[in-house]
Amino acid sequence: MRLRRILVLCLFLLLLLVFCQQLSCAQEGASPNATVPPPPGAKQIHLKHVLVIGETKGWEHDSVSAAMAAIYNMGHDSGLWDTTLRTDCELLTKKDLGRNAKNLNYFDVLVFASPTGELSMDQSQRLDMMSFIKEDGKGFVGIHSALDANFSWPEYGEMIGGWFDEHPWFTFNAPIITEDPGFPAVRHFPKAFVKYDEIYQPKNWSRANVNVLLSLDARKLDYANNPRIHREDHDFAVAWAKMYGKGRVFYSTLGHTEESWEDPDIRTMYFEAIKWALGMTQGSTDSHPWAKPSGEVH
Known about the structure:
Elements: H1 2-28, E1 48-53, H2 64-78, E2 81-86, E3 109-113, H3 123-134, E4 139-143, H4 154-160, E5 163-164, E6 171-178, E7 192-198, E8 202-203, E9 211-216, E10 237-244, E11 247-252, H5 264-277
Parallel strand pairs: 1-2, 1-3, 3-4, 4-11
Antiparallel strand pairs: 5-8, 6-7, 6-9, 9-10, 10-11
């Protein structure tokens, strides 16, 4: 009888020990099989949503893919936004598209990555896009040939600030002056610098309607025998910011070449421009007169 009691007690203690070990593992979140990885965490929800459009109906820039990839990586690496990349205009609508497709109501900033020609948008899409910026107060960032698109759409030119009217020097070592060093997208540039890029000449454009951030140094340009120069005032803006209704609009002609998207200065400019368009930073859109450099070459 005594031996039986001892055996029962030993069995009880053994079961108690097993139970305690299992309880300890459960409390510590330990897996019985250490080779099984823990379940993946939930997808991070980003603060903002950026839509990048790279549709081209005219000239095909080799830098479109580089620009789109750079903007995607900016958002991914900073954690400030997620990015949807499209080479069509289907999402430029407020209509419910179904199929888990996003529309303009989902996005906070629209980036035009060097589109050209008449983009594939019907009238309702055009109205929705302008409402997205003007009434909803969302942002717009135009890269390089965003100025060379939608010539049949007057409100587009009004929104972005003008239209492409030749590039008088094609791609060259452009002498650039920083006009508003306090604006977040250009504050990293020195007062004067040079970038190898293609600088557009805008038409239907006036600095009275925008805040010119960067411009060409008129003293260092070659005007001789150049029929592509149409601006008699020789005022060639390189980047500007403006309001369109409630929405923030940024444009720069920089970003023509693939190599430019490896330039930290260019990447920083567009990164800060998107942040500004998202309302994350502040920068003036007030226009200012041109302080025309003295000693201009003719």
